[in-house]
């Protein structure tokens, strides 16, 4: 006589309490390996928190907590540090940042959990070609900043790379195959971000990919702050004497992974707590789809473009510049102890203090709700379903929601051409083509500053393609004029 195999009673109890008992509805028909895989998935989800999250974000929608009357533009350090009345000592903060680098107190951190699917690329986003001419992978574009800074400042800059369950193994393999992009493998740490279940929009039930597999999605770049802690990365930083983390996302090959001026401002500016600081660029127009730095309820924060009322987005100053012009570009400096404090005792502010499924103290940033079409396995019919319209809610967190958890936070303006050329789309805005053009424009400006003639058309656009590695120059001042051409010809491709 055969006996039905029952699921562990504690697992059944947790799922029933969360209203998600259907996850195990095919348990007695699963193979042993599939049961083990499902139990592993279940163990990685905080089921106790789901009922409240579902009420708030899935079957309900969270109310907007900030009224338009409370919103004002965020103060920031302008890129032109000589503006009368707003000037600041750029060279002083650069020296301070360089001192921290020479003391080994800075680490690099890259969020790289995405795949290149939207670009028609099969593999981790970081393996996608980012160099305008060389096709150098995005990982290598960022690694070159670390290589150059280590050479200049004579200290190791450890690199922490956050992957996701869908690309972790492929990312690690990429680094092995590419000699760790010129860095010592002992100084690179890989770890995966967490995941959230995908929910049926109407019922709040967790969707299934298969009878033995829960449909999940990465928990957003906000999960990086929790992953830094849970992975042991923060303890590794402490052991190395690191105090500050330079945060960038993988899709922007122009990001200055190591920027002494920004490091110095973050650590030493009188209005900075040294907990979390941000870079901004001036918005191109009111409708540009980037988050906006604002000040509300006494705290600097980032408002999603969709949450900034239209009359505020279009408001202008006397000089016709946008009143709310501070666009977020996902570049931050973050204090090691700020991340540790948020995770270890929950003193992070609103929404802090949640516990994770393994009982460790932690915190939770507010979730953001996204309605999506999510294919799923229908447990009743036993058939896969590919919905024609949005059927599910995905929840993710954004790292910038930690900004108002700081005691005080600063914003530093950088030049769009100097540091913001993300590759998000296969064509059009934020595509490889626009990235290539911006890389060329930045390189052209650097070369023109030291006397090299660059061909431009009547509109001022470059009639050539140029790629400059940070290993060659981290700025125009690093260019060796003796090794440069006197002029670049129209149509020429130049790699320096």
Architecture overview:
The protein has 496 residues and is of the alpha/beta class. The protein has three domains: 9-43, no CATH class; 68-429, Alpha-Beta Complex (Spore Coat Polysaccharide Biosynthesis Protein SpsA, Chain A), CATH 3.90.550.10; 431-496, no CATH class. 26% of the residues lie in helices and 20% in strands. It is built from 13 helices and 23 strands. The protein has helices spanning 9-17, 32-43, 50-58, 90-102, 138-153, 168-177, 223-230, 233-240, 260-268, 310-313, 336-345, 416-419, 432-449, and strands at 71-73, 106-111, 159-163, 188-192, 195-197, 199-200, 208-210, 213-214, 216-218, 244-249, 276-282, 292-296, 299-303, 326-335, 352-355, 361-363, 367-372, 376-378, 383-385, 392-397, 411-413, 465-467, 493-495. The protein has a seven-stranded mixed sheet, with helices on both faces. Strands 1-12-13 form a three-stranded antiparallel sheet, with no helix packed on it. Helix 5 (138-153) links the parallel strand 2 and strand 3. It is globular and about 75 Å long. The termini are far apart.
Number of helices: 13
Q: Would you give the CATH topology of the largest domain?
A: Spore Coat Polysaccharide Biosynthesis Protein SpsA, Chain A
Q: Tell me the overall shape.
A: globular
**CATH architecture assignment of the largest domain:** Alpha-Beta Complex
CATH superfamily of the largest domain: Spore Coat Polysaccharide Biosynthesis Protein SpsA, Chain A
Strand content: 15-25%
Largest sheet: 7 strands, mixed
Uncertain regions spanning at least 5 consecutive residues:
346-361
Average pLDDT confidence is 92
Assembly context of the chains:
single chain
**Overall strand count:** 23
CA gyration radius, whole angstroms: 24 Å
Number of domains as seen in the coordinates: 3
Q: Report how far apart the termini are.
A: 75 Å
- Order the strands across the largest sheet as they lie in space: 4-3-2-10-14-11-21
Give the C-level CATH assignment of the largest domain: Alpha Beta
Give the helix/strand class.
alpha/beta
